[in-house]
Model the fold of this input.
Amino acid sequence: MTTASDPSYPAHWEADVVLRDGGTARIRPITTEDAGRLVSFYEQVSDESKYYRFFAPYPRLSDRDVHRFTHHDYVDRVGLAATIGDEFIGTVRYDRIGPDGRPASAPADEAEVAFLVQDAHQGRGVASALLEHIGAVARERGIRRFAAEVLPANTKMIKVFTDAGYQQKRSFEDGSVHLTLDLEPTAESLAVQRAREQRAEARSVQRLLAPGSVAVIGVSRSGSGVGAAALRNLRDGGFHGHLYAVNEARAPGMEGDLLDGVRAYRTVADIGAPVDLAVIAVPAQRVPDAVAACGEHGVQGLVVLSAGYGESGPEGLDRQRELVRQARSYGMRLIGPNAFGVINTAADVELNASLAPAPATARGRIGLFTQSGAIGIALLSGLLRRGEGLSSFVSAGNRADVSGNDILQYWYEDGATDVALMYLETLGNPRKFTRLARRTAAVKPLVVALGGRHTPAGHLVPGTRLPESTVSDLLRQAGVIRVDTVTELVDAGLLLAGQPLPAGPRVAILGNSESLGVLTYDACLTEGLRPSPPLDLTTAATPEDFRTALTAALASGDCDAVVVTAIPWVGERALADDLAEALREAVTEVPGKPVAVVHVELGELVEALSAARATAAPPATAPPPASPSPRDRTPAAAPADPPTAAPAAVPDGRIPAYPAAERAVKALAEAVRYAQWRRATADAGHVPEYEDIDESGAAAQLAALVTRVGEGAALTLDEADARELLGRYGIRVLPTLPAPSADAAVRAAGVLGYPVALKTTAPHLRHRADLGGVRLDLTTEAELRRSYEELTEALGKPSELLPVVQSMAPRGVDTVVRAVVDPAAGAVLSFGLAGVPSELLGDTAHRLVPATDRDAAGLVRALRAAPLLFGWRGSDPVDTPALEELLLRLSRLVDDHPEVTGISLEPVVVATEGLSVLSATVRVAHPPARTDLGPRTLPSY
Done:
């Protein structure tokens, strides 16, 4: 008999999932303790659903049925339940069968599977989620195929199977549809899973940002405190739905009376109407009661402003975990705790469930996500001060449930958001973040500022062991515009939201200050742009002179962007409005290129330029259709194609202005690099196939090798095993022969053939040619013996040095190629030049595995020292195609075999023709779980 407390209970199968409509459910194994829940669940299922499940009228479960459906060995017989609170809403089970269709045990690899979903929850994606999880369980237990018998009239269940994306066979036998599903994940099944994930997570955020009714829990009668502030902001912001206040201190009988102009109640249960979103602002010790009351009332989501959780220490962390478990048990998602709140400026919503002080946030095209309330205030203030509005704002606080990944899922298809800005303190799940970021960046700019290299208190999300430079490279690869400060975040957002993307790096500079023009010119060169000599209009230039010069620059085919510099006119402060109008007229007359303004002490000009929207012509494109009423909304359907990649902004007459040339040029340079990435990724490249790769042989070799490794440990392969494994992927390592004595060295040279190299392999000398542990181009026995003697006299005994002899490789450029598996980010491919200078300067480039041919080419060219590979100062260019092929082969090896946790090829000598791998280190371990390939789950910390 198995219960949830038994050691044999597979607790790792438990998972929280987001359903199609944005609600949550928990999936867990069924135990013997679930008999009552199963009977209650079955009683709520319609007769039709029971008929579809058992192919006959089956009004109730017998005691034998209940015993069979609650007793499992979790190997050959497994049952899973989807639950909300303490109730079952759906079940699935498999029974392993043999070729004759009768019950069997391993090595039989087929199982019969069957579902039952409560009628009230059909259409929410419960069966699809259960199929993903039971499929993962089956693969873990050695089952490779599912068989299912479905009545032809049960079209919903047939669709669950056929839409899953697995390879399948279908036949009609004895009045039923017989389906066989191959459970090996395919590109199609993974795409289906991720599309469902996107729809569900986007819908869960939409429920939080576009509620039809909001209750603020914890509103004081005095009007002071966090709850009262949130209520006022909701009321004064013009929220279109129903608004309620909850104050437990209200006397009985006063329900429905007004509090600060809003109907107030003692409890959520007293409201007597549906509540979609609850904003909780009570002390942490009272939050569980508030959450329970919300869950019982059917509230869909929570914004928890209350503090005293993970940010306060270990006890707070425990409270935070329990808060998440409690909210999810009711099918609710939550933002927070310790959150600053959420804002949605959509015309049909106008939700300000935040602590953002007045003035109210303007409607705009920027989406903003922050983990820090203080940073959120600063960003909101900065954007508003410079005339930019928001589409939506989420400050997630401790980010215990809803994270930046969820917001990216929402922004991806949100027609009101053109530019996404994120302030993050950790990446959480870097593998998923980079995947979502790449998809989002393909259709709209995503600008990210990372606020810390380590996980701060309160943030339960695990960090990554990757260096900061590596993380930055991976974000760039995903199309993320990575900035270092919140000031740069606002600067980049303003330009991307108000200007089209530049077609290239050529920049025209014009203005009424020669010195400011030169500063701008220098800044462009520093950022890698190609500026033209500045056009000095002189300090006597009028607004009309600016308009004429800007019109000519925009019409010219010699530039891709324009920076206008302006200093004040002596005694002519009123000209700011005229200059703004002149610049706007030029941009309107010749659209299509970005324009930025650098000003010195021209605050009036900043205001005039940011206010230009009021007098600009409306955008040519139609506005997005209005969202339906929150009451009428249905889960968003997956788009047949991804959202159309529009320009980063629809010009509306606004021109971003910056108080320093460096800030304007930095923002412009980020736009240039992003536009280049967009153009480059239009052809994403492909992962090449190589006919000489022995994938099955490598798998068999690794399976044998990991038997020598304990759980949680890793094994460094010896030279022979490493050479054999790499050789199966077409990566040849030059052999070495041990030389424990001078005579042994001579014999080794005789085998390999002169010229040879003599080098030490002791760990403290390995790859340290600067310490004198390497002798090259030894062409005779005498040279070899002399070098051996010098080596041992200078560095130590042969037993300490572990010398080896190796054939000489053709001369070339020494490089280093590595692949490492990070638990959070996944496999990362790295490339750099060998030697101390490159290590000291951190001149290494990185790409995520699997790498495409385009990734490999970009990796080789990403180094600052890359010119050394392409004929620097008259040297011969090396064989970069051979180098790119090596990178791709190594990427394939690591991607195909999760047992490989690290490979270092050092050095790799790249010659004018071909390359030579002189040394290789390979580490293997039992393969870690791949959460990105498993069934959809919410994080559990």
